[in-house]
Amino acid sequence: MNTILIVCDTWRRDHSGAYGNDWIHTPNINRFAEKAAVFENAYLTSYPTLPCRRDILTGRYEFPWRGWGGLDPDDVTLPQVLGEAEKTSYFITDVYHHWGRDAGNYWRDFTGFSLVRGQERDGYITDTDVDFDRTCHRFPLQGPSVPHSRNAQWMRREERDWFSPQVFSQATRWLQHNADHEDFFLMIDSFDPHEPWDPPRYYTDLYGDPAFDGTEYPVAPYGSIEGKLTPEELRHVQALYAGEITMVDRWFGHFLDQIESLGLLDNTVIILTTDHGTHNGDRGRTGKNWVLMEEISHIPLLVWHPEYGHGTRPKQKAQALDYFPTACEAAGVEIPAGLHGKSLLPFLKDPTLADPREAVLFGEFCQSCYLTDGEWTLTQNVDPANPPLFSYSLIKSKWSSNDWGPFDGTRRLVGPKNANTHGERTVTRLYHLPTDPKQENNLAESPDHAETLLRLQKLMVAKLEAIEAPLELERRFGLDRVG
Fold it and tell me: On the chain, which terminus has fewer CB atoms closer than 10 Å, C or N?
């Protein structure tokens, strides 16, 4: 059986009708959700973009060992395993990190790949005679706007020239010429609806004021909006993001139509998901670089199987680690030993199946560690003493090239002592999701919930030990003092 994996970057779970949104137009995702299984308890694994892709392609947690970077030479990947079984795999993406400096090798084991150029900071077009008539205002520390603006101005003449339309159009063409491959694996990695949010104006006008004449921010501040965005500007930012999602939905629908017309729904598993969400005015913030609250960590996951799970809403916990074994099982390929993920197919066959996971971990390298059992969520802070940090890799990553010492003779890279730099990420947090879905009431210091806190901390230790995470992490998170 084939598998098609579609990752739409920075797509909030609550920004589609499949999860109860009634104001953003996502008719194609909604019609897919009606026939697919819609997972209620899917969570991110490693944050942000590239760490999540390594989770996907290796079926193993990234964040306990290292941060942003490329695949290690000895990483065993899903397309590699499928290739050894003589299965065809193909990768289509506009996520420019996949070919950028200090990462750039995530396509390496696929049978073939296609890279759509021009997103965000991708240095694609250098023409000096490009006449700019678009704005792409960014706040300080958000990086240069010129590459994206120049690229967009050069290539855009009609909607299909935008990036997600290009990605899904290429995927549609690939299916037209490759549907006869037996048990193929197709991964579509769309940077949209990640910012910059600059869809064609008619999408934005569905949600905002067409007469808006303030400063347009396709990239909003990564942090507090107080004193930075007026209420009108915030509403326009929200309209831009909503418009971006509706554009992605339209071209996903175009691709879904092609799947249906080729009869591939009868022999293909389709996974539609994201890596993480974003703040969008809630908590007085926009952007993502903060604590991994529900709006960032609790993600959409929709899975189609030709025989099972139609119209169900499985409650079992799921993560990006699970796509590797799912694709192997679908293709009839033996699942390699040592994966942290579990196939999702048993949950489609029987949505009432007991959840094999009491809880799941997620997090960001060198920052707090998170655990949820679906009812409670624990954010375990970094110990104030901030013990030394180590990165485990055979390569130096983009974000570890300045303050890090040398390799110590193994694959361990010696790091700086004070690696955690965001004060709000050093707070231990405990939230009861059924009664506090917006995570506004931190119960970590409450004597009434001391037993729950201790239970979840012990469970976090057990989870870290089960995946053989570096031993120093227990000390780093203060978990070595848990009784």
Answer: C
